Amino acid sequence: MPADWRDFVALAKPRVMSLVVFTGLAGLVAAPDSIHPLLGFVAVLCIALAAGAAGALNQWWEADTDALMKRTANRPLPSGRMEPGAALAFGVSVGTGSVLLMGLAVNWLSAAILAVSILYYVFVYTIWLKPRTPQNIVIGGAAGAFPPLIGWAAVTGDITALPVLLFALIFLWTPPHFWSLALFINSDYAKAGIPMLPVVAGRRTTRRQVFIYSLPMAASAVAPWLLGLTGPVYGATAVALTGAFLLLAARVAMSHETEPAKMAAERQMFAFSVLYLFILFGALMADRMLLS
């Protein structure tokens, strides 16, 4: 029986894609120049397609380990609803198409960064880092940090300080975000043989690292405002939200809970970290619209 269209949607990791698309849109809106609405739509569409392609290739490669984890066992490939060849063809064709469309319709700098983001996620993070080192999330965090650069480059054709700072923000946000999740699904990763930090170094070290990485992330979050690259809406939002982020990270660092079901601090940190980026990048776009 052929895979249902909903299986292809699941293959693209729509929840992850939504944050990728939103931060890419924010980079596009925050850029100082203007872009034709149709080209802007194409650029955002290409970012979404590339994210979906990367998600599909990630699931194609990790089908065996996904089958071992409760959180991922019902995905299209480990559940048997989709053949591996279909997932591979989907990922390669959609990824290649997104890069070519971006280059031909928008510009080749944004297309090049888009291509790098796909290749980095698939080859550097998924294939090389994730199964080999507990630093997989640290180094691999760059994969999800490219969208603001892509959105900005789609409008301006160059890269300046603000998109680089936004890249740094997402790069440094990724370890606290994913390690908070890993703390309460630690047994899943251990069962699948994935060397996430809680599996290799233990929960105490991981909780400390969540807080440690939150500090440079906080600096990168407020830096655009302190350097005069954004306005007061972003500045006030960054200060308030980042303060809350640090408080939650401190709660995680001080937690000694060992039962996943009772890890309230870790669950709150994970949930808030997603909301944090959405609101912060929303404030970035609001600033640009108010100043234009």
TrEMBL record:
Membrane topology, record value: Multi-pass membrane protein
Pfam families in the record: UbiA
Gene3D superfamilies in the record: UbiA prenyltransferase
GO biological-process terms attached to the record: heme O biosynthetic process
Gene Ontology, cellular component aspect: plasma membrane
Spans through the membrane: 12-32, 38-61, 108-128, 149-172, 210-227, 233-250, 270-291
Keyword match RNA-binding: no
MF (Gene Ontology): protoheme IX farnesyltransferase activity
Superkingdom: Bacteria
Entries under CDD domains matching the protein: PT_UbiA_Cox10
Miscellaneous notes: Carbon 2 of the heme B porphyrin ring is defined according to the Fischer nomenclature.
The family this protein is said to belong to: Belongs to the UbiA prenyltransferase family. Protoheme IX farnesyltransferase subfamily.
Protein name in the entry: Protoheme IX farnesyltransferase
